Amino acid sequence: MSNNGYKPDIEDLKENRDVEGLIKALQYKKGSTEYEDYEVRSDAAEALGNFEEEKVIKALIRAVKDVEDVRFYVARDLRKFGGSAVPFLIDTLKDPDEDMRRDAAWMLGNIGDERAIPPLTEALKDPDEEVRFHVAINLGKFEKPAVPYLLDALEDPDEHVRRYAAWILGVIGDERAIPALENALEDPSEYVQKGAEQALRRFD
């Protein structure tokens, strides 16, 4: 994005409720490491938390790859918007960028809307192992409501999915999982067997 030397006045944009201007400010010298540059983007992200609109949510999701100071306000805004952000974050679970998929899983876990459970369970099939790991962690945040989906995932053809499902069932600790985990001790994959064994130890 070219800024032609213009530095956005976030207070003025906020006072005039200039949502488009704040969205543009969220991209101010994107990629720069200079504090002054990402301070503008951080202030823009904070201000956008006052505008629960589809275009704002989409802009914030695009900004999840920014520096930590900006991501803090992005995550806070999306959590504040809650249910309004969930459909867009679910779509982001299929983004070509694995970092975007990982961060979408994290934000869905923090928002805690149960609509996210089925797509997160499906995302246990993600081709990137780090994404699958973050998906599993965030499924665990839903605790008991996630258990039926994770039990189904124990039957998935992919051994990685079965292993992650077993692991997070152990973390949740719902006794409904015990029979399925015991069955998983006979899984054809040694990788899954070990996961089930570790999970069952949590019930001792």
Label the structural class: mainly alpha
The number of helical runs is 13
The number of domains is 2
Q: Which word captures the global form?
A: elongated
Low-confidence stretches: none
Major sheet attributes: none
Give the total of beta strands.
0
CATH names the topology of the largest domain as: Leucine-rich Repeat Variant
Distance between the termini: 57 Å
Mean pLDDT: 92
Strand content: under 5%
Helix content: 55-70%
CATH superfamily placement of the largest domain? Leucine-rich Repeat Variant
CATH architecture of the largest domain: Alpha Horseshoe
Radius of gyration based on Cα positions: 20 Å
CATH class category of the largest domain: Mainly Alpha
Write the element-wise H/E pattern from the N-terminal end onward: HHHHHHHHHHHHH
